[in-house]
Amino acid sequence: TAWVQKAFSGIRAAVVAMIVMAVWNVGKKSVTTPTKTAIAVGSFLAIAGLHWSPILMIVAGAVLGMLLFQREVRA
């Protein structure tokens, strides 16, 4: 019915807002250096613009993290 469709439109908008807030909060804590910013932006562009697999980007991020941030973990 029409009122159910309208209700779901509002629910979808609220869910989008909650996802944006979750991304913002995680991003503030995780993306703290220019290198991490470059990885985040590059991953976003690869997924959104080039339609690369998000799973591929997670694996690539893990590999980059192991290569680029070895000293942070050891310290």
What structural category characterises the helix and strand content? mainly alpha
* Number of contiguous helices: 4
Radius of gyration: 17 Å
Biggest β-sheet: count, sense, barrel?
A: none
End-to-end separation:
60 Å
Mean pLDDT: 93
Q: Which consecutive residue ranges, at least 5 long each, have pLDDT under 50? A: none
Shape: elongated
Kindly state the number of beta strands: 0
Task: Spell out the helices and strands N to C.
Answer: HHHH
Residue fraction in strands:
under 5%
Count of the domains: 2
Helix content: over 70%
Describe what this molecule looks like in 3D.
The chain has 75 residues and is an all-alpha fold. It has two domains: 30 residues; 45 residues, no CATH class. It is 85% helix and 0% strand. It is built from four helices and no strands. Helix 2 runs antiparallel to helix 3. The longest helix has 29 residues. The mean pLDDT is 93.
